[in-house]
Fold this sequence. Notes:
4 helices; mainly alpha; 0% strand
Amino acid sequence: MSDGIAFQEHWAAHFARRMAARIEHALATPDPRERRDALAGALDLGKEARLRIESGTTDDAAEREGLRHLQQALDEVQAALNRYDVCTDDVIRAAKEEAAQAADHLAAVGR
């Protein structure tokens, strides 16, 4: 694996961790507008992470698993944003867990 790809996966892990942190912030606030803003920010961070992963080939098993978890997190955050009531925590908690798992897998790329 080239250093450039490991570098991109390092940044993808960073963005996935930040995504999980934004989701955690959304869970911590009862204000629907602030929760929606935090989830929108998490979605943007997850998209940036996915772009980093997809910038090269996904030859590494940890990278593929990280991408799978990241996509699940993106889908769940989008599902939470699509709801009328963004205070439904089950989907948001699942998204946080998926983002954290994505970060863990991506951090393992190249080790």
